[in-house]
Amino acid sequence: MHPADLARYLGAYAERVMTPRGTTAVTGLELMTALRPPTRAERDETTGEWHKAFNADALTQVYDVVPCEVPDEHPVLKGVHARHHLRTPAEMLMEEPYDWCRPLTDDECMRPYLVAVDVNMAFAAAANGLTVGLDGPTHLTGGPRFDASLPGSWLVDLSHVDLSRVRIDGRTVDADRLPSPFTPKGDRPTGPAWYATPTVAYAVELGFDVAPVEAYVRHRTGRYLDPWYKRLRDAYVTTMADLGVTTALGGREFLEAMAAARDVDPTMALLVNAIKSTAKGGIGKLRQRSRGQVPFYEPWPALARETWRPDIRAAVLANVRIGIHRKLMKTAAAADLYPVAIGTDAVVYPSTGPGPLDFLPYTADGKPVPGTFRLGISPGMVKHQGTRTVLWAEALFEEHGGVFNVANLIKNDTAEEGE
Q1: Which of 16, 114, 203, 272 is the most buried (most CB within 10 A)?
Q2: Is the model's pTM score more than 0.70?
Q3: What is the DSSP letter of 342?
């Protein structure tokens, strides 16, 4: 970059996000602490002296970890499993974004295009309004009653949840063409497994009974990530406005503005990528894993900080997946339309035309059907990621010897990079 462009880029990032602290991921984590610091100065009314006090809405100390929430190399698992043992869902909390695909039906093969839309700032949007635990875990045994207000991890059997029995807006969807909301690969659960609170709450929302076997929950709770989300949202929306894409645009105007955005101001386009990476990387840092130089099962530096909270990361990622599934169900009910692949926050639909407006459902007065994917720049709304032909996908399947996830391979030259 030209020195003037670099100065403008770093200056805008420092003004809109914060002064960089290293990588975007490190900065994303530091931003959480800066907005919700663990301590504050408090004046003693008796002596008049100032002393350190803890903030009730912050992460203030390192608590005991929960075995099912930690990665394989954590010291708490030393000697628990045999060498090279692969932990099962009943032993490990596996809350991750979607990585799912399925074969196209004969009818879908007759539609010439595969169109990918992706959710803007998906990780930040999933953190908005999310209640997380601020204290240490409490172990509940003996078949505890599920309480959606308690963040944590629940061992529960959700294999009985049958999407073909669920009615959305008076219609039943084709469950065989939708992923399960309870696993990253979209497979239906086969028995008890550990889930974050948002996932179990979604099963209840769909109308199914849940019977946890045990749980680890947090009783001191708060919306810790709300100011973090708002800071990154404002930075993202402001920077996109610099590129000519505003929240007032919708439909075709929005798609045209997005197609032209990268050429408007390349420096600000790079800043958009940095802001998105800050959001995604910050959430990832909540469960930072050990580096190669640390001996297996030995503590690593990240474990000593208050913000090493894999349970909060799991809740955010569960919210990402559940939020997408909720929109999939609404879209299927409204337009009998089903995805063929999902990669993290990118959703691929078969389409008769090359753009999102050719398949996204709209009402008679031209508005998006409530609850479905909606075009727009605000976090949680979607933009066009790319378009390929069905013939292109079928050729790749034949080359690779079977169906595989093509969601993140479908990108136009004008689509944003750095997802």
Answers
A1: 114
A2: yes
A3: E
